[in-house]
Amino acid sequence: MTIKAEEHWVKKGPVKLYVYRKHDTAKAGPKPALFLVHGSTFSSRGTYDFTVPGRTGYSAMDHFAALGYDVWTMDHEGYGYSDRTDSPSGILVGVEDLKAAMPLVVENSGQQSVSMFGESSGAIKAGAYANAEPKRVEKLILHAHTHHGRDAPEMQRRRSIIEQLKASPRRPFGMAQIDNVFNRDVRGKTDPAVVKAMADFELKFGDSVPAGTYVDMALHMPLVDPRKLTCSVMLIRPDHDGNATDEELYEFFRDLDTRDKQFIMVKNMTHAGGMVSSQRFRLWHIMHSFFSCPPPVE
After folding, report:
1. What is the CATH number of domain 3-291?
2. pLDDT tens, residue by residue, 88-128
3. How confident is the model at residue 1 (pLDDT cuts 50, 70, 90)?
4. Is the pLDDT of residue 19 over 70?
5. What is the distance of C-alpha 168 from the center of its chain?
6. Which of 247, 267, 271, 279 has its CA 20 to 30 A from that of 183?
7. What is the pTM of this model?
8. Domain limits, the chain
9. Distance (Å, rounded) from C-alpha 198 to C-alpha 178?
10. H/E stretch holding 106
11. DSSP secondary structure string, 241-298?
């Protein structure tokens, strides 16, 4: 295999952030840069460079590197290999992380802008980053996105325990929380071997994760202004996803300033089951078709 993995570090003030890259060294010349943004619970490599013992085909980074992309991701502050701090590491903290990482991506990829994909709270971070630095994002996919979450069951649940979530910058993280992420909307759609492999990888980082994105999604939405997104945008809505309602995403889609936009619904996919479930190849196909589509003719 000619896919090369690289570990990088960037500084955001005193905070050291882990940035990870995969690209195919056999493919000469500049490659389109793809940046993948992780969500509230799992780290970057648990989400996008996942392995299941005895199985193959779970790494989205390998898949897109083989297609010719220069693929990047990062652990946000308080997650994975990045520094653990006293910050609750909310959505806007994640935006600052992306700002810190992007000069490294530009320097090494030779590209001034990227295609960006985010899922769950990672979609909100990606959208908010595209609001803040529109020239850096050429195409944007918001997967399992929450716009305002007003009537979404999972957001209502978080609001019901908001004092508990606000009491500490970090929330408990263990097997129960991992199982809940995969099964809270509908049970039985994720292979138990996947859940176990995710636990084996993620729990080595400790028994807590930042609480900030949960608080933000419960209380401080919306954090992405669709009227200020001028790049090409795709919304991907999983079939089973209590983090948002169809109605709020229709509202978001309607208000997008860009006319180059798509809204896709994916049957049988769960909120957390995009990148690592049996539906992953459908998701990757949808992503590649959007990212590789030629630009509109003026």
Report:
1. 3.40.50.1820
2. 999 999 999 999 999 999 999 999 999 999 999 999 999 99
3. low
4. yes
5. 23
6. 247
7. 0.97
8. 3-291
9. 8
10. helix 91-109
11. -TTS-HHHHHHHHHH-S-SSEEEEEEEEEETT-TTTSTTHHHHHHHHHHHHTSPPPP-
